[in-house]
Amino acid sequence: MQVKELRQSLRRSSFVYPFLFIHLFSIVAIFFEFQFKISSGGSMAAIFVWDPDHIGPFWWVTMGVCGILMPLAGLFLMPQEIEEGNHEMLLLTTLNRWQIVFGKFLTLWLLSLLTLTSLLPYLIIRYFIGGIEWFNEFANTGTVISVAAIISAIAIGASGFPNLASKLGIFCLLLFSAVTGGGISMIGGSIWMNMAKTSSWSPYAIAFYHICAVIVVVCYVMLGLLVARSRLRLAVMNFEIKPSSLLVIIIGLAPFIVGMVAAFTCGFGSIAGTILLTFLAWNSDRTPKAPKWMAVPKANIPPPLPPTSPTIPITPEPPGS
């Protein structure tokens, strides 16, 4: 199924046209960088440190196409499964709801990574001609990959809702939560990295900052996919709150929850609030199951019918006998 999804996505216009345009725009962006001698190096290279004063046109084009435009195609992935009832047939197989949603995310994210990988020749040209610094390029690449992952997940999560207005509303809510909540989660790592910039603790501070960045990306990718998974729920018990509504409320309150944890820990424990929030969201949409100690009920099979006596065929007498 994963191969089928990838093949179909490679033929779609949502991949072909951005793939062609990004190469054309990259050539123009590199020309402007060399012509006007625009610097692409900042004072500190790290993921999510996106300083507009030190980002050249090439990386703005890359972020716009690979990090934002192509992942937005996820807004059209879930309706074809829900409206046509394909998810009901898929759930009859060995696949579960999480595998279906994660397969769509992986396909969409890999398309962005494939397009980003195709720009490697331009990076080599910029290195030999423009004299760029590799650690800045690695940081910018990590930022594009991380943003593409988060936007892909929240776009897929928003695509499970019925109409365009609800899709856009949920997408904006998830994006706001990712920007604000994720930014608050990075406060501790940012403070330590800036304080230890010129000390011997700098490598440890940078490592802690990037560990926080990876956790933020993984958590908000999971939150977006959990919203999409909740839309594939076939039935909801009478005593349950609708999982998709509960998840939207949790994610909407994420900046306040993470902010409270950051306030009590002076920013250094804010990443723990994000992990706790993801754990809470994961357990808010679990299919009720019987406990392991409960015995499996016996199969309700009707008893066999009683045997019937064989009937002896009666041969009719010939006429005139």
Architecture overview:
- The protein folds into two domains: 1-160; 164-286, no CATH class.
- It has helices spanning 2-11, 13-36, 57-69, 79-82, 86-91, 97-117, 120-130, 134-159, 164-185, 187-195, 202-230, 243-252, 254-264, 270-283.
- Helix content is 65%, strand content 0%.
- The mean pLDDT is 80.
- The chain is mostly helical.
- The chain is elongated and about 120 Å long.
How many structural domains in the coordinates? 2
The assembly state of the depicted protein chains is single chain
Strand tally is: 0
**Count of individual helical segments:** 14
**Which range does the strand content fall in?**
under 5%
N-to-C SSE series? HHHHHHHHHHHHHH
Given helix and strand content, the structural type is mainly alpha
What is the radius of gyration computed over CA atoms, rounded to a whole number of angstroms? 28 Å
Q: List segments where confidence is low: pLDDT < 50 over at least 5 consecutive residues.
A: none
Question: What value does the average pLDDT take?
Answer: 80
Major sheet characteristics: none
Shape annotation: elongated
Helix content: 55-70%
- Termini gap: 76 Å
